[in-house]
Design goal:
Layout: H1 2-19, H2 23-40, H3 46-59, H4 62-65, H5 70-85, H6 92-103
Helix pairs in contact: 1-2, 2-3
Organism: Dyadobacter soli
Domain Transposase IS204/IS1001/IS1096/IS1165 DDE: 1-98
Protein name: Transposase
């Protein structure tokens, strides 16, 4: 029963972002979802719910143009992995040169 309820909460959150087209409805649906999470008592959802609560103004902007910063986050992860490969950066100028050669 708990697993089913947790799965339904996760699906509901995903459904909010895939089906809602307007910011005001998105905000309302997120608020209702947040309340369901609070009532459910699932501690695993508290981090997500708190993030939505703290950043709702920027999160609901998604409903205006339906875009995310996922590509920027992906690129940042590539840079971090590239930097880790060389165990740090000693020469920043050369590091930036290498990045432009590989990813530009």
């Amino acid at each position: 029963p708990d697993l089913k309820k947790a799965y339904e909460l996760a699906l509901e959150l995903s459904n909010i972002f895939t089906t809602t087209k307007e910011k005001i409805y998105g905000l309302t649906r997120l608020a209702k979802w947040h309340e369901k999470v609070r009532q459910s008592g699932f501690k695993s959802f508290n981090t997500v719910a708190r993030s939505i609560e703290n950043h709702y103004k920027t999160i609901v902007n998604y409903f205006d143009n339906r875009s995310t910063n996922a590509s920027a986050e992906s690129f940042n992860a590539k840079i971090k992995a590239f930097r880790a490969q060389f165990r740090g950066v000693r020469n920043v100028e050369f590091f930036l040169y290498r990045l432009t050669q590989l990813y530009a």
